[in-house]
Design goal:
Pfam families: 4HBT (PF03061). By secondary structure, the chain is α+β, with helices and mostly antiparallel strands. About 15% of the residues lie in helices and about 40% in strands. The protein has a single domain, classed as Thiol Ester Dehydrase, Chain A (Roll). The radius of gyration is 15 Å and the shape is elongated.
């Protein structure tokens, strides 16, 4: 996905409080970063508020280390009447940027919301 989306939606460095007992970053921490990035892309595509309704696939490929800086790439993969699937990939810059490691990927579903927080139709361009 990185080649299709040259700029990351989000770049973040984990902090010491984000480490689990194995010395790696909590899976829940990276999941929340993915949800934030997916929400940014989905909100722009829906031209309004959205909510995460499902995580259809999530794969943890490699651990995130404390010194890593992660780049989260997100793009619309599937379009529906009120919802969309956002493909999200996380790449860790490791060893002061000398190495890039794909650490996780997933497919999140977001639904567009109206003023009453109910699903609303999305007007897709094209």
């Amino acid at each position: 996905m990185k080649t299709d989306s040259p700029e990351p939606t989000l770049r973040v460095a984990p902090r010491p409080g984000d480490i689990n007992s194995n010395g790696h970053i909590f899976g829940g921490w990276v999941l929340s970063q993915m949800d934030i990035a997916g929400g940014v892309v989905a909100s722009r595509a829906a031209d309004g508020p959205v909510a995460t309704v499902a995580i259809e696939a999530m794969t943890f490929i490699a651990p995130i280390l404390l010194q890593d800086i992660i780049s989260v790439y997100a793009q619309v993969e599937r379009r529906g009447r009120t919802s969309m699937g956002i493909r999200i990939e996380v790449i860790a810059d490791r060893a002061r940027g000398a190495e890039q490691v794909k650490v996780t990927e997933g497919l999140f579903t977001f639904v567009a919301l109206d003023d009453n927080h109910r699903p609303r139709a999305i007007e897709w361009d094209g």
